[in-house]
């Protein structure tokens, strides 16, 4: 397993996608449960665990005391391909899957939950939303940045709305080719380190009806 740990994250992602959760040839074995990792998934788990111990653990105490992320850790997360796990390779990402996201976040959490949350929000909220509902132009503009150098922030929560997104008060008024935003956001994760913000606002408040 020590040799496997030297394989780059992006290469492991390729193996995970290519091999999937495969049956053994010539058998009728059941698909393994999610608690039983494939060899490639175990390789990813070991690789991120080693990365966490070597690159993150030495800085945890200082980061907690200063309430700041160490820039070298952010740089390493991008360099390793951990900030674009599901982003397609043609847009600069690792081209992997949601299961890999789970494995990565779990291993990071064992060393520093703050770093894990940073990676989790970036991948599973910001990146995934752009991939699902973004226009092709938006994907081509923002996903390479998010995969390679820009952290993403998910700006939903307001003083009077959190998980109840229908209660948000921020509005977006179109003027020409742009929108003017008016409102207040708070408790926005990654906001201190982000370069791309997904800001939730209501472009047609009169259409909102709560029953």
From TrEMBL:
One of its GO terms (cellular component) is mitochondrion. The keyword Flavoprotein applies. Gene3D superfamilies: Acyl-CoA dehydrogenase/oxidase, N-terminal domain, Butyryl-CoA Dehydrogenase, subunit A, domain 2. This is Short/branched chain specific acyl-CoA dehydrogenase, mitochondrial. It comes from Phlebotomus papatasi. Pathway: Amino-acid degradation; L-isoleucine degradation; Lipid metabolism. The keyword Glycoprotein does not apply. Residues 38-148 form the Acyl-CoA dehydrogenase/oxidase N-terminal domain. Keywords: FAD, Fatty acid metabolism, Flavoprotein, Lipid metabolism, Oxidoreductase. GO terms for biological process: fatty acid metabolic process. Residues 153-203 form the Acyl-CoA oxidase/dehydrogenase middle domain. GO terms for molecular function: flavin adenine dinucleotide binding; short-chain 2-methyl fatty acyl-CoA dehydrogenase activity. PROSITE patterns: ACYL_COA_DH_1. It catalyses: valproyl-CoA + oxidized [electron-transfer flavoprotein] + H(+) = (2E)-2-propylpent-2-enoyl-CoA + reduced [electron-transfer flavoprotein]; (2S)-2-methylbutanoyl-CoA + oxidized [electron-transfer flavoprotein] + H(+) = (2E)-2-methylbut-2-enoyl-CoA + reduced [electron-transfer flavoprotein]; (2R)-2-methylbutanoyl-CoA + oxidized [electron-transfer flavoprotein] + H(+) = ethylacryloyl-CoA + reduced [electron-transfer flavoprotein]; 2-methylpropanoyl-CoA + oxidized [electron-transfer flavoprotein] + H(+) = 2-methylpropenoyl-CoA + reduced [electron-transfer flavoprotein]. Its EC number is 1.3.8.5. Its cofactor is FAD. It comes from the Eukaryota.
């Amino acid at each position: 397993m020590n040799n496997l740990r030297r394989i780059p994250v992006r290469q492991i992602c390729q193996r995970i996608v290519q091999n999937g959760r495969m049956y053994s040839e010539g058998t009728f074995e059941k698909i393994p449960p999610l608690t039983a990792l494939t060899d490639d998934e175990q390789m990813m788990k070991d690789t991120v665990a080693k990365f966490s111990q070597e690159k993150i653990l030495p800085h945890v105490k200082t980061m907690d005391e200063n309430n700041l992320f160490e820039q070298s850790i952010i740089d390493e997360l991008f360099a390793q391909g951990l900030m674009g796990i599901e982003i397609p390779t043609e847009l600069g990402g690792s081209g992997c899957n949601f299961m890999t996201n789970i494995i990565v976040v779990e291993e990071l959490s064992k060393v520093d939950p703050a770093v894990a949350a940073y990676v989790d929000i970036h991948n599973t909220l910001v990146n995934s939303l752009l991939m699902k509902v973004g226009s092709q132009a938006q994907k081509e503009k923002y996903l390479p940045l998010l995969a390679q150098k820009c952290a993403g922030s998910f700006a939903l929560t307001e003083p009077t709305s959190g998980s109840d997104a229908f209660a948000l008060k921020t509005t977006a008024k179109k003027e020409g080719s742009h929108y003017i935003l008016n409102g207040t956001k708070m408790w926005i994760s990654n906001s201190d380190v982000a370069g791309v913000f997904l800001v939730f606002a209501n472009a047609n408040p009169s259409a909102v009806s709560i029953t």
